[in-house]
């Protein structure tokens, strides 16, 4: 039987670590987007990617379950936005299907962990 050790900081949360990984991947992908997308799709994708771990961290530090759940829901919303933007980037042929699918898999994992965490906070 394994014992769960409570997270001491948000950095201990696997969900936050996944969010940071997605942010890094989005930054690396969007570096290669056309210059004309700098203030549109590139900027929007980066903001959504940043929003995921940022809201997880902010909610964790609020120390109140109701507020924490609200910030986790915002992270969920950002993951949905990012998924849509990945489809747009794929349709515009800025990313490959493999790149899109890799990020989508990570977003699905983040969503699953987020929903489970929200259930645990009730």
Task: Kindly describe this structure.
By secondary structure, the chain is mainly α. It has one domain: de novo design (two linked rop proteins). It is 74% helix and 0% strand. The two termini are 24 Å apart. The model has no long low-confidence stretch (mean pLDDT 93).
Q: Percent of residues in helical segments? A: over 70%
Tell me the series of helices and strands, N- to C-terminal. Answer: HHHH
**Radius of gyration from CA coordinates:** 15 Å
Strand percentage: under 5%
CATH topology: de novo design (two linked rop proteins)
CATH C-level = Mainly Alpha
Which class best fits the helix and strand makeup?
mainly alpha
Q: How many β-strands, per DSSP?
A: 0
Keywords summarizing the entry:
122 residues; mainly alpha; de novo design (two linked rop proteins); 4 helices; elongated
Short summary:
This protein has helices at 14-30, 41-62, 65-91, 97-120. By secondary structure, it is mainly alpha-helical. It has a single domain (35-120), classed as de novo design (two linked rop proteins).
How are the SSEs ordered, and which strands pair?
Layout: H1 14-30, H2 41-62, H3 65-91, H4 97-120
């Amino acid at each position: 039987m394994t014992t769960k050790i409570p997270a001491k900081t948000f950095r201990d949360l696997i969900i936050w670590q996944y969010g940071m990984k997605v942010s890094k991947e989005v930054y690396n992908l969007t570096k290669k987007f056309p210059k004309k997308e700098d203030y549109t799709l590139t900027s929007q994708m980066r903001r959504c990617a940043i929003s995921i771990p940022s809201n997880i961290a902010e909610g964790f530090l609020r120390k109140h379950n109701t507020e924490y759940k609200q910030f986790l829901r915002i992270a969920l919303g950002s993951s949905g936005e990012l998924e849509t933007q990945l489809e747009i980037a794929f349709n515009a042929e800025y990313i490959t299907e493999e790149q899109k699918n890799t990020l989508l898999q990570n977003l699905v994992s983040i969503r699953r962990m987020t929903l489970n965490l929200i259930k645990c906070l009730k």
